[in-house]
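Aggregate trends can hide what the representation actually does to any particular protein. For completeness, the protein is quoted in full, as a sequence line and a line of structure tokens.
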Amino acid sequence: MTLDSSHRGDLTPDEVVDLVNRGLRAGENTFRIKARSILCCMRHMPNWSMEVVELCKKYRHSGVVAIDLAGDESLNCEAHPGHRKAFEEAVRSGVHRTVHAGEVGPPSVVKE
């Protein structure tokens, strides 16, 4: 896909993942390395998480290796079922998972 100036800054999440994967493949070929991506859900945007897991499923065989949860750990994710539902879907679908936890805040953040 070639983007002209009318599309710059106006990409869908699907287009972003596709373009990043293309860049990773180019880097692999140029530098003879292996590069993969992890798609991040953001704690302050629980309504995005299901779309992120769907992108993980779609691109699991072309560069995406996991889903992650990142962002402000002071936000209580248990109050927002969007993240939990996305991670439950990731488990059902065999998508690997990581979570940023314990970087700031009390130990209860890690448990959450």
